[in-house]
Amino acid sequence: MNVEVTKKHDRGDLQYTWLSCKENKMNFRIFILFLSHHVIFITSKIINQNVERSIDLSTQVVRETVKITAEDTEGIPFNAYNAVFHEDLAQHVSFVSAKHTSKKLAMRKMSAGSTNFIITFPEAAPSHVFYIEVIYTSQIKPYPEEIKQADKQFVRYTGPMYFYSAYKTRFQKTQVKLATSNIISYTQVKPYAVSSNKIKYGPFEDIPGHSKELMTVHYENQTPFMSVNRLERTIQVSHWGNIAVEENIYLTHTGAKLKGSFSRYEFQKDGRSGQASVKSYKTVLPASAFGVYYRDTNGNISTSNMNVMKESVELELRPRFPLFGGWKTQYILGYNLPSFEYLFNSDDDYVLRMRVIDHIFDDMIVDEAVVKIILPEGCASIQLIPPYSIRREADTLSYTYLDTFGRPTIVFSKHNMVENHMSDLELKYKFPKILLLQEPILIITFIFIIFLFTVIFKRLDFSIAVHPHKE
């Protein structure tokens, strides 16, 4: 085999090389990547032999699942696939994953800010069947943008008509699932069929790579459109058996804005009034949560119901007023957890395993989450292992009762999060167990000083009268 290096690039931990190969009168090009010390091969003759798309538009988030049968037209084995997103959609992508049957496949961006992902397979083969799941946010828009209290909410979705790929697609089918069967309009590209709340497109043949044609669907969607503008989550770890969690949540109804004034009378009289409004929603907490409290700026909110399940604690939250489009609310939710379920140790080495975020409401969107983890005083050699990319802020110190030099506080943030981001983080640190005696010793010392001061104070004479026995 004759091999000729035609292009070579080096970008940090990502190196890739184009090789031209000639053997047995067969000309082909292979894309070789040296990614974190692993060699992967992407041939230039890859095509999508068959693509089956399923797009779920029944809620406020867009869930797209794509089944891909990729193969090399010349039978050359490959163990990597280049998945690419259109530049206009990249900002809406919240979560991406790939799997081969039931096994998750590794995905990695070509570079920071890139819209290209490299999917690697366990073994090289001339053909691979795998799935890509993509979740988009803020891609479904209310249309019209304003409605009256008794009106229905209609929304409009605009997205790619064909699977956007770097490779040619031989055959493709697309199924779009809507919230209701009330469809105002939709893109009509033959062949297509409509059945109840589903639109089926295809099969289409010989679609070139990087196809940018768009589809638009205008339909009724009364599901709650809510976004957490900012989530401030504080996790305070204690080695005395408790982990305290508190969340400060800023919430906005992002559906069609309310036109005109709100009528409480009409809202309670007619059950069809304000169908797109949010009257209540369900938050799911860990099964071991206790000491739950829920309050806003006016104080404790009693309009909440807690149901203790076997695997979770369901908390139904009801704001002081129903939320219509453009309306906002802010509240604090707190609870405690037993540390033995989340904190593990071996001698002076500790590991904390907890979710980055918890379930706030179904089909949630979190625009920005700021997580603060407060460790006990004296922790050192702190190592944070997040389940996905985050923005790490500078570590700080927090002070509370009986602290002397402050508690190490780890702060990080992430934008555009959904339910799929409810994964566990790992926080490793060292803590000398002798420091567990620090606070008890401080308390004992403080009590001893008060006792000693009291004894001395009792024995001192501060009177100005002359006592007979002193004359």
TrEMBL record:
Keywords: Endoplasmic reticulum, Membrane, Signal, Transmembrane, Transmembrane helix. The keyword Ligase does not apply. It comes from the Eukaryota. It is a single-pass type I membrane protein. GO terms for biological process: protein N-linked glycosylation via asparagine. The chain crosses the membrane at residues 434-457. Pfam families: Ribophorin_I (PF04597). Pathway: Protein modification; protein glycosylation. It is found in: Endoplasmic reticulum membrane. GO terms for cellular component: oligosaccharyltransferase complex. The keyword Cell inner membrane does not apply. InterPro entries: Ribophorin_I. Belongs to the OST1 family. Subunit of the oligosaccharyl transferase (OST) complex that catalyzes the initial transfer of a defined glycan (Glc(3)Man(9)GlcNAc(2) in eukaryotes) from the lipid carrier dolichol-pyrophosphate to an asparagine residue within an Asn-X-Ser/Thr consensus motif in nascent polypeptide chains, the first step in protein N-glycosylation. N-glycosylation occurs cotranslationally and the complex associates with the Sec61 complex at the channel-forming translocon complex that mediates protein translocation across the endoplasmic reticulum (ER). All subunits are required for a maximal enzyme activity. Component of the oligosaccharyltransferase (OST) complex. This is Dolichyl-diphosphooligosaccharide--protein glycosyltransferase subunit 1.
